[in-house]
Write a structure and sequence with these properties.
The chain is an alpha+beta fold. Helices cover 32% and strands 20% of the residues. It has 3 domains: 260 residues, no CATH class; 162 residues, no CATH class; 80 residues. It has 14 helices and 18 strands. The relative contact order is 0.12.
């Protein structure tokens, strides 16, 4: 990636980082060298990780990524066909393995096997099997996060777009060495599950900490903190070297900062709002929103009986009388019976699943396809649900556009017609934009005006890494490090959307929904 970046942008990045580092002596005591010493005892250059992230974005026009439990900090488009997903890191040039992921909640499921490992002090065959199991579990979780993040930055507009992942690292020299910062770059790859090789425990005293490799990178898992570390081979990945000249009197700079004036930049953001995608119990709605495809059949009720009869007529010669009776009964139960409660809907799904299993196993041409279209919604049907939508629109009637959130006299239906409830929804990670509108009862749904299948396929198969008809769950979101949504209202009228992680015990200031009520001790 480094060689593809513009030289003037790299110079700006270098200047910002090294200028900050030039003040390092203000933050550290410098030892006085004796007269006989030939080497000056320099302090180590300081690279602040948060400053690095902000500077990288500013210098290269990169987009900040807010995906928890991964090392992705920015995304960058270098041309029309190439994007990079970047993990920004800073660590000492002489330091060892670095943390690249953490699996705190997932690791609870591994407690039993970890407790068995601690009784062994070598890699014996028993331990090898346990290490292999853990390495595979860790690798699959890691890969899902990578693929989900790649899907978000790639978006849904271009299949030809190439997305690569890299670690971009800044490695300052140690105390006593010539002040320099080494720029490093190393590939950020999914772990190759077919080439996993266990290298063994890190030591006899910590058998639950072990190393493994996939031939591309070497990893170390530490059980106490559920962290995955990677070997970066610091000296081998250097792509640039920057000298750092310390300011003679850094305190003078700080004393006079207030005399500097900066140009005022107009803020383009009007408002933001975020919420958690799960309920208080950590569950995702099973029949609507991101799982809209899992809801009841969409076929108009007036047409259902005639469609059942059509299935009977079309396949009567290919099914036995018992099989035809089973199909007819199942279709009538699913399509003609009213299923209201959560328990009743679960029963309907049981009947529907049994019917589909039979249809797939029948081997009859086009039979399963026609049954599926009859009893299911389209496989990629989704909408983005707004929490407490009635209150949301009451508090923010103009968030999506002038009067889009206003209701008619009944207080149940939105006042404006569909064509006046549209707005541009931009996915900030990829830059893709679609025309969307607010829809459904109480304005609870953000839906795409068109591209419904494309949007659904991207969200379900890409962002959430789900198989067809697989329901999105709280557990799946946890494994991906995604549990929330943030909307950003810009002055140009666009609404930005990004998938984020929200700490439910410490929600952000713009949060709405049950996390805020929980924080405030309210059940309303």
């Amino acid at each position: 990636m480094w060689e593809k970046l513009k030289s003037e942008q790299k110079e700006k990045y270098k200047a910002l980082i090294t200028n900050f580092a030039s003040l390092s002596e203000a933050f550290s005591q410098k030892s006085e060298a004796g007269e006989a010493e030939e080497v000056q005892n320099y302090v180590a250059p300081i690279v602040n990780s948060k400053f690095q992230e902000t500077v990288f974005q500013r210098a290269f026009g990169a987009v900040a990524e807010d995906i928890a439990n991964t090392s992705y900090d920015a995304s960058l488009r270098v041309d029309e066909n190439h994007k990079y997903l970047i993990g920004l890191k800073s660590f000492g040039f002489n330091s060892g393995d670095q943390k690249v992921a953490q699996f705190k909640k997932n690791s609870q499921e591994w407690n039993e096997i970890l407790s068995e490992i601690q009784f062994y002090d070598s890699i014996g065959e028993d331990n090898r099997e346990r290490y292999e199991f853990l390495a595979r579990e860790i690798s699959m979780l890691r890969n899902q996060r990578i693929e989900s993040s790649k899907a978000q930055i790639k978006g849904f507009n271009s299949d030809a777009l190439s997305v690569e992942s890299v670690y971009h690292v800044l490695m300052p020299t140690s105390k006593g060495q010539k002040p320099q910062i080494f720029v490093g770059e190393i590939s950020y790859l999914p772990i190759d599950l077919d080439k996993l090789e266990i290298l063994g425990p890190t030591g006899k005293n910590n058998p639950t900490n072990f190393r493994f490799t996939d031939g591309q990178h070497t990893y170390k898992y530490t059980a106490a903190d559920s962290q995955l570390h990677m070997t970066f081979h610091n000296k081998e990945i250097v792509v640039d070297t920057w000298d750092v000249d310390y300011v003679e009197d850094p305190f003078y700079i700080f004393e006079n900062l207030h005399t500097l004036k900066s140009e005022e930049i107009e803020d383009q953001i009007i408002d933001t709002v975020s919420w958690v995608m799960t309920d208080r119990n950590g569950q995702v709605e099973e029949n609507s929103g991101f799982n809209a495809f899992n809801g009841g059949a969409k076929l108009a009720k007036k047409d259902r009986l005639s469609r059942i009869q059509k299935i009977q007529e079309e396949f009567a010669d290919q099914l036995s009388s018992e099989e035809l009776a089973f199909v007819t009964y199942s279709l009538e139960e699913v399509l003609l019976k009213k299923w209201s409660s959560k328990e009743e809907k679960a029963e309907m799904k049981t009947i529907r699943t049994a019917l589909m299993d039979f249809a797939r196993q029948s081997g009859i041409d086009k039979f399963s396809d026609k049954i599926e279209k009859l009893v299911y919604r389209p496989v990629s049907e989704v909408y983005i649900p707004l929490p407490d939508s009635k209150k949301f629109h009451k508090d923010r009637p103009d968030f999506f556009g002038k009067n889009i959130g206003t209701f008619d006299e009944s207080g149940k239906k939105l006042a404006l017609p569909k064509e006046e409830r549209t707005f541009t929804l931009r996915f900030l990670s990829s830059g893709d934009a679609i025309e969307a509108y607010i829809n459904q009862e109480a304005g609870k749904a953000i839906q795409s005006v068109d591209k419904q299948d494309i949007l659904g396929e991207w969200l379900l198969r890409g962002v959430f890494q789900l198989a067809e008809r697989e329901v999105l769950t709280g557990k799946k979101l946890e494994s991906l490090g995604i549990n929330g949504i943030r909307l950003t209202k810009f002055k140009n009228g666009e609404i930005g959307i990004e998938f984020i992680w929200i700490d439910i015990d410490n929600p952000p200031a713009d949060a709405i929904g049950w996390v805020v009520r929980q924080r405030d001790g309210s059940n309303k």
